[in-house]
Write a structure and sequence with these properties.
binds thiamine diphosphate; seven-stranded mixed beta sheet; binds magnesium ion; two-stranded antiparallel ribbon; alpha/beta; Rossmann fold; single chain; globular; 12 helices; binds iron/sulfur cluster; 36% helix
Amino acid sequence: MQTEEHLLPTTALEVQAPVCQEEEYELVYHKPETMVDVSMHYCPGCAHSLVHKLIMEVVEDMDIQEKTIGIAPVGCSVFAYDYMNIDMQEAAHGRACAVATAIKRLMPEKYVFTYQGDGDLAAIGIAETLHAINRGENILIVFMNNAVYGMTSGQMAPTTLAGMKTTTSPDGRDTSFYGSPIKVAELMAQLPGAFYVTRQAVNSANAVRRTKKALQHAFQYQQLHKGTCLVEIIGNCPSNWKMTPLEASKFIDEEMVKTFPLGDIKLPRAEDLKNIREEN
Ligand SMILES: Cc1ncc(C[n+]2csc(CCOP(=O)(O)OP(=O)(O)O)c2C)c(N)n1
Ligand code: SF4
Ligand SMILES: [Mg+2]
């Protein structure tokens, strides 16, 4: 009896698969060694995963894995400590800046950063954040602003846009009743302890590159002990915004940036940057 192989046309059997040599390929992507090699729990297209990677790329590029301590928040990114392969400490909701203050004061040679959402930082944690920056704590605050409480199913946050529908503002945020969205970066930049404040996004390739640059600068500035760095990042929440990731990216360009314009808000003075050293 004939096998299926015998029934195949001979030409199909003669086609040789190309032999690929690894060195012929250009490496265009690698997962930083500073990340744990596990799947993340985030929804598809969520900005949290991308920003985790950017932070960990900077830590890898600067070769400071052993010297970096991150503070994880409460919110969708509560498990950041499972993904970032560095020393991490979980903080209660809103308390990351207070925890970071203690760690940095005890170990001033470490690079210390908090990673916080807008519910965490701008609602329950706004007092801790403001006081830490006012004191000029030498920490980096990475502030993920996605305009909702993502983890708890999309309630209105202090940063929810005027008119934006959320589960607790089903007719759209009425600013005469709830107040206007808080512009955290502009507010905090007023404080004397703020050294570097910028607002970036990650909804396009260029925006991702700029965000990585901002994070790089903020980590380097920590060597100077001259105050707090705040990198606000306009994130997204496709699930609670009820959009596809592509629609969410468009929404950022068309709506979010009207309230939260991107760019540097407070830059260090040139004379303050003289003593930055290359870590690697
Ligand atoms: C003291 C306290 N209050 C409230 C909660 C409930 N809670 C958990 S996550 C969250 C909001 C998180 O939103 P955000 O910080 O914006 O993070 P996202 O999930 O959007 O990334 C709240 C209110 C809690 N865990 N602890
Ligand atoms: S609920 Fe929103 S913020 Fe949370 S993981 Fe999903 S998309 Fe990201
Ligand atoms: Mg949020």
